[in-house]
Specification:
Helix 2 packs antiparallel against helix 10 and helix 4 crosses helix 5. By secondary structure, this protein is α/β, with parallel strands linked by helices. The protein has 14 helices and 10 strands. The longest helix is centred in the N-terminal third of the chain and has 17 residues.
């Protein structure tokens, strides 16, 4: 297929596809799906080999968020029956992180619900980062605390944080449809603050909220322009008690196309399969490893994930290997400066398709389980 040959050539040169090419990937048929995966897989292997980076989430503070993000079980007014607890102490967070690191994780992601951290919150998280790094000096630590105020990114960096996550989630034109308590511009500003402070920027999207193909391409092109090192691709987990509980539009094939499009647009970035892979990719998860070079190990913030041992077996069975702590994730041109430039790629950033793809016959609500173990509980974590 000429389209795929063109996209492979561009991906190996770090050249941005056109919008029409990105849209065409999302519009490919199921008959062409394996060809799409194989093509994007060439780009993935060129920049990242067969390594899979493991990341582990620690939810430092769960629930009771004042923001109204429609997709989130921790949102204002959420009726989801999730764990709710205030800040973990540094030693509690360090123990939680240790479980993930023992399971093979290379990066720990420290997440807290809320609009954004107070200065006291930054102190808390700084103490937690130091506690984790005292025990595991080689671990990467990424903070995800919401919108940052001036100077907070620099303080996190001084405390030892390596990265900061703040997702764009969806296109600018539809952002107001999912959140009203802050703006798309607020999110862009926080990613830029993290980047300017010398933190490795991590920013991605959520697919499956009823968005169109155009929306998906818009947000991925916006991410390419922001140039994050890591691009998490979340697939909506429709949690009961949230406004999007009935949004069951994704199929495994649709998810693979979205990951392939993201890889073609962000060829040398760490593309991470994040929340929802078990719910929507299901038995097709191993194929997704040919597109993404990073996954979360174990559970998510408020929902359970696949067993950690099953994650490791899946990686091995698919012919991939877990990335070691001594290996550098990013290609050399990016790794040297934290967030590298896309030289020759220009500003980063038509076929059409059903905006949500073909719905499954029945929503797989049985695959959504609220997290009841790990951080904030007395039960052993899944790692």
């Amino acid at each position: 297929m000429d389209l795929l040959n063109t996209l492979v050539d561009k991906g190996l040169r770090r050249e941005t596809p056109t919008r029409a090419e990105a849209l065409a990937v999302l519009a490919t048929s199921d008959d062409d799906l394996l060809d799409v995966v194989a093509a994007a897989g060439k780009v993935r292997r060129h920049w990242f080999g067969r390594r899979v980076k493991l990341n582990y989430l620690v939810n430092l503070k769960s629930g009771l968020c004042p923001e109204d993000c429609s997709y989130c079980s921790q949102r204002l007014g959420s009726q989801a029956d999730i764990l709710k607890y205030t800040w973990l102490k540094p030693d509690q967070a360090s123990r939680a992180a240790a479980a993930g690191l023992a399971g093979g994780a290379k990066r720990v992601c420290l997440v807290a619900s809320g609009r954004g951290p107070t200065d006291r919150d930054v102190d808390r998280v700084s103490d937690t980062i130091k506690a984790i790094k005292e025990e595991h000096e080689d671990v990467e630590v990424c903070a995800c605390l919401g919108l940052l105020s001036d100077g907070q990114a620099e303080r996190l960096r001084e405390a030892g944080a390596d990265a900061y996550n703040h997702n764009l989630n969806t296109s600018e034109s539809t952002y107001g449809d999912i959140t009203t308590t802050h703006t798309y511009a607020d999110r862009v500003d926080t990613v830029r603050k993290a980047h300017a402070a010398g933190l490795s920027a991590c920013s991605g999207l959520i697919a499956g909220m009823g968005e169109s193909d155009e929306d998906l391409v818009d947000v991925v092109f916006s991410l390419r322009e922001l140039d994050p090192d890591s691009v998490p691709v979340n697939f909506l987990i429709p949690m009961e008690g949230t406004p999007l509980a009935k949004e069951w539009h994704l199929t495994p094939q649709r998810c693979l196309r979205i990951l392939a499009m993201t890889r073609f647009v962000c060829p040398d970035a760490e593309v991470r399969i994040a929340g929802g892979r078990e719910v929507h990719l299901r038995t097709m998860q191993p194929l997704a490893l040919h597109l993404a070079n990073s996954i979360f190990l174990g559970d998510y913030l408020t929902s359970e994930g696949q067993a950690g041992r099953a994650d490791l077996e899946m990686i091995a069975d698919a012919g991939f290997e877990v990335e070691g702590t001594g290996e550098v994730t990013l290609p050399e041109h990016r790794a040297g400066g934290g967030c590298g430039s896309h030289e020759g790629a220009g500003a980063c950033g038509s076929a059409t398709a059903d905006p949500c793809g073909s719905a499954a016959e029945e929503p797989r609500t049985d695959l959504v389980a609220v997290r009841r173990r790990g951080a904030g509980t007395d039960l052993a974590p899944n790692a």
